[in-house]
Design a protein that fits this description.
The complex is a heterotrimer.
Chain A: H1 10-27, H2 32-60, E1 63-71, E2 74-80, H3 82-109, H4 114-133, H5 137-155, H6 161-192, H7 206-209, H8 212-225, H9 237-240, H10 246-273, H11 275-281, H12 283-303, H13 308-328, H14 332-363, H15 374-377, H16 379-393, H17 399-413, H18 417-443, H19 456-467, H20 475-496, H21 503-514
Antiparallel strand pairs in A: 1-2
Helix pairs in contact in A: 1-2, 1-4, 2-3, 3-4, 3-10, 3-14, 3-20, 3-21, 4-5, 4-10, 5-6, 5-10, 6-8, 10-11, 10-13, 10-14, 12-13, 12-18, 13-14, 13-18, 14-16, 14-17, 14-20, 14-21, 16-18, 16-20, 17-18, 17-20
Chain B: H1 2-7, H2 9-27, H3 31-53, H4 83-113, H5 118-125
Helix pairs in contact in B: 2-3, 3-4
Chain C: H1 5-26, H2 31-56, E1 59-62, E2 73-76, H3 78-105, H4 110-129, H5 133-152, H6 158-187, H7 192-198, H8 206-223, H9 231-238, H10 241-266, H11 268-275, H12 278-298, H13 303-324, H14 327-358, H15 369-372, H16 374-388, H17 394-408, H18 412-437, H19 458-476, H20 478-489
Antiparallel strand pairs in C: 1-2
Classes of the chains: A mainly alpha, B mainly alpha, C mainly alpha.
Chain lengths: ~525, ~130, ~500
Amino acid sequence: MTDLLAIEYRPFLAILCPTIASFLILVSGRRPNLRESWTIIGSALLFLTVISMTPFVLKEGSIKCDLFNLLPGVDFAFNVDAFGLIFATTSSCLWILVSLYSIGYMRSLEEHAQTRYYFSFALAILGAIGIALSANLVTMFLFYEILTISTYPLVAHDETPEAIYGGHKYLAYLLTGGVFFLIGILMIYFLVGTTDFSHHGILKPALDSTSKLTLQIVFFCFLLGFMKAAWMPVHSWLPTAMVAPSPVSALLHAVAVVKAGVFGIIKIVCYLYGTDLMHDLGLGLVLGCIAAFTIIVANLYAIGQGNLKRLLAYSTINQLSFIILGVAILSPMSVTGAMIHIPFHGFMKITLFLCAGAIMVVTGKKEISQMAGIGRQMPITMIAFTIAAFGMCGAPPTAGFISKWHVCLGAIQSGQMVFLYIILIGSLLDVVYFFPVIRTAFFEKMPEVETLSGDMEEKVQVVSKQIQIQETKRPLYLFMVIPLAITAAFSIIFCLFPNAFYIYDLAQMAVKNIFGGM
Amino acid sequence: MFDFILSKYNYWIYIILMMIGFYAMIGKRNLVKKIIGMNLFQTAIILFFVSTAAKRGGTLPIIEHAHGHGAHAIEATAYINPLPHVLMLTAIVVMVSTLGVALAIVIAIYKRHNTLEEDEILRQQK
Amino acid sequence: MIPQSPVLVVVIPLIFSFLNLLFGWFRRGLCYPITLVALALSFLASLHTLNTVITTGTIHYYLGGWNPPWGIEYVVDHLNAFVLAIISFVSLVVGVYSRRSVEQELPDKTVFFYTVFLLQVTGLLGIVITGDVFNLYVFLEIASLAGYALITIGEDGAALASFRYVIMGTIGACFYLLGVGYLYMATGSLNMTDLAQLLPNLYGSKVILVGFAFFMLGVAIKMALFPLHVWLPDAYTYAPSTVSALLAPLMTKVGAYVMIRILFTVFGPEFSIEIFHVTDILAWFGTFAILFGGIMALSQTDFKRMVCYIIVAEIGYIVGGIGVANPTAIKGAIFHILNDAFMTACLFVVAGMVMYKTKGHNISDFRGVFRKMPFTATIFMVVALAVIGVPPTCGFFSKWYLLLGGIEAKHWGFVIALLLSTLINAALFFRVIDKGLYLHASEHTGLHSEPRYDEAPLSMLIPGFIIAIAIILIGIFNQAIFRNIIEFAVPSGL
């Protein structure tokens, strides 16, 4: 038994946690409290397992866990390295918080099919952790498909025609991406006979046997394969997927699914192609242009949005391309910034989505125009929202500032000033669309008393309801408010202590390995 | 040219028979006519095979002596080839069983649809 | 090491089918156990044969002690033994599954059903094991005739479908017979190994070429290769559930096996690939079959019909793999014979379970299946993921080899068709999953109450689970199968 806890098997344990939890959730469907406790226990165990691997990885470099042979030259194997741990830590920590939030959300709304929801959620986290810890492309593909398929029932959860349409569009985009990913994997296997990730990239030998054009085309196959990263023009599944319940949008479409896409792109750039080869093929510039285009256009789209969740969706698209841009610049500082933006943005964006969900549950409002004066009814929520919005814009003292600072420095260091300007313009546009939300929430008055109908008593009731704090009315609401307060607090904590959860150390170590000890 | 047709007249006859049967199987609409076509086709193939066994001046492949006599040398070229005949015995059995199954199916169809014309049946099924 | 195990595999179902008829006359309840005993014994014999082949190499068994090329010889090499094991395993599982389904759909024909069932299995096993081309014809016809009879007793429309199958199948078998005849006329031999030695001298002869063409056409009809697949959708849709579950996975795969034998063992790779470029044509037919099957399947509303078109596409995978004709692709095609047999069997088993409960096999009968029949739904999810090609199910690994083979041969049409087929299959299965999973969709509100838990009987569930678990295990442990069997089954000379 103690052997099982040995460090070599820790990755396998990490995978087992969500798997067993999902199975237990499925069989305890009749007893909601038991079912929810499986989720909480599973997520806590997962987080502990992941964190426990971190000191070892910081010292030794990586943990290898080879399970069995899948294909000649390809094993079902895990390789826990610094970068993977960043993503794994983010997902596992946020799973705990979002699960608590889900309890409040689902039970307040008395949603149907909750067992299916929690089951699919656990499987989705399994996919995310598997992607984070995988040692080669085929293992990553396995968990990639698990992620796509398990999130489909979550997107179409409401089962209204819009939800089912959103689910179908989601599936169409992501499964097509999966097919492109597969063809990329096959080409890599055909060219070099292996699909393992390695610090300096594995494709250098391929240059002898094939043309640069082939490698560039394969890179585009991979890029299309990672449609999960929502780069334009294959981004439109993400705003449509906002029909999902808010916890789904929060964890999956702000953290797990989209970050898996970005994680994949970074892995391809740094661990498959390697920074030297990327320079040689000129792909860094192309990737940077795509990312830059997405940043600007997504922000422009966001300015016109009236639905809060759609606005947040476009903001997510913008921030994801910011991460891609950081990688495309191919300098140590910018890649560090991109890597730390994965957890930082995760926490901040989750706060925003959890707030949007809380607003919908407590007051039923989805459009920004309806949310006048809501800061008075839900002060904690809106303060958290404000903090996270500052983080999106990259203002201190939020975590977003640290990552934006790194990427900008990296851009300056490598001399690509155009990208620096793009980032600054993007941040400016962020302010343009977040500020009105905050202003509407805090500084606008509620609809005037005279415009209300009904007699005096009713009017008094309505007015007094308007200035009462709603968010703590029911104890269930606390399940929602406390997690989002925690994530907002973390947004600030990460700024002051970037090394919380070892994030900064891990990023430094990963970058050092990628750039060959610079 | 004529020599080509005349010297292989057996093959030509059987192939024409085969094609008639093939046409009947596909072109006719009555189910029983299709079965007749199928039978023609298979019989033609069997006759085709058997004709390959024939030899000019060859005799029946039966060795004429009672059981228990010592074996004596046989001149194989004097006898016609018995193997295709044997194979075709099996093929005839197959043909007959196929005929039986096909007719049984047609009876079932007739019981259900009361007609044996394929287009009628398809119309009834719509 | 029982030396008779090759012939026992075929003879046991044959004898037991007659025993079935005899004992079933007195007591109907005896049919099912007798059938199971026969199939189990045959399965054990085939496993023993496979083991013998893996450990000692090709088995040559002379029927009746007559030496080839005068006697009939059974040649069991790796490819043979592999397909033999697949057939006996699938028929055993379907046999176990058959009981409730036959009780419900064919209550007064049980005895005849099981008798003909065993004859069908005999025929299929015989086709695979024999090393003599005429003997193959005989077993081919045994299997086909049994198939015609089994399909006829299905639901409304089955008789006509079976009649059309009779016509097309007889054309196919007769073409095969003509092929045998032409080869015999030119070489004087009927034994496959003997032909392989005699034919290379005759590669220039027109007689051989015509014989080859007849062989290919006959096998293509039996195998339902596009565009000669027309009999398949009707026949397998209207047949009883058990019959579909037995015939659909096995009949077409046996045809694929015969094609591999003729292309590479009897005629040799030199003939098929280099001299006449037949494999190039086959690769394109495979590609079109994949696309055609996928597109037709998208427009179906009947679940069994949809699966039939998926079968047409899967045959396209195998034939395309054979057509690409490099070792990787052929390994993929042989592995896909195994995978497709299991996946198709599982799909029809699921269809049968749904039909048992809802008396229909339309996609709309799947409504609420995830809540009504959760175990059936789980099995269905597993096989759906396998057909789509999601790891770690077996479907992914055969796709991997086929795609890799296509890339190596630069046959981009085949590669693109395979990838498109993945997406089309995803669309097909998610349509059914939607129906099963989502109950609260607005078009259904107020129509029915919440479905109650009403699972299929255990004798149907357990075989389904066995196949589903096998699908996953074959995927995970595919390298064991490749290293021990398939590497050796690839025809030499490629």
